[in-house]
Amino acid sequence: MHLKIRPQQAQQASQTATEVAKLASVAAAEAVKEVETELQVIQVIQHRDGTMAVTVTKTGVNLQGGQTAVWSGLTDAPTNSSAAWRQGGKEQAISEAEATTGLDVYDVAYGCGGTCKSK
To answer: pLDDT per position in the chain (119 positions), as tens?
Structure first.
């Protein structure tokens, strides 16, 4: 079967396809932006004395003298300054950091010497 398409129909189909492609591109960009705004920077920071801390912030930590960023990544855990941090967010961040790095961040941060009973 052979279909005849008029030039006007072809032009209209092309314009429609272009509009759909633009809409899809805008939707994809918005989805990426939405996901990025929901993610925070998670870092394991080691202090001069060897203790470690897990921080979750929007942009990462400005290191001070004697501090080293041991690891950085992205997380959906709440930031350190939020109420949600005190309601389970801290434990989520520590668990993520430990699982990714293999470090016992909780033990080092809280100085339990391997004897921490619960996180």
So the answer is: 667 777 788 888 888 888 888 888 888 877 766 655 688 898 988 888 888 888 888 888 788 888 889 899 998 888 888 888 778 888 888 888 889 888 877 655 544 444 444 44
Assigned token pair, 56? 């979750």
Q: Are 26 and 34 contacting, i.e. CB atoms less than 8 angstroms apart?
A: no
Find the Cα–Cα–Cα–Cα dihedral 92, 94, 99, 104, rounded to 10°. Answer: -150
- φ, ψ for residue 104, nearest 5 deg: -90, 75
Strands (E), the chain: 40-46, 52-57, 68-75
* Parallel/antiparallel/unpaired status of strands 52-57 and 68-75: unpaired
Enumerate residues 6+ apart whose C-beta is below 8 A from 115: none
User: What φ, ψ does residue 24 adopt, rounded to 5°?
Assistant: -65, -40
Amino acid identity, position 63: L
pTM tops 0.85: no
Measured in residues, the chain has a length of 119
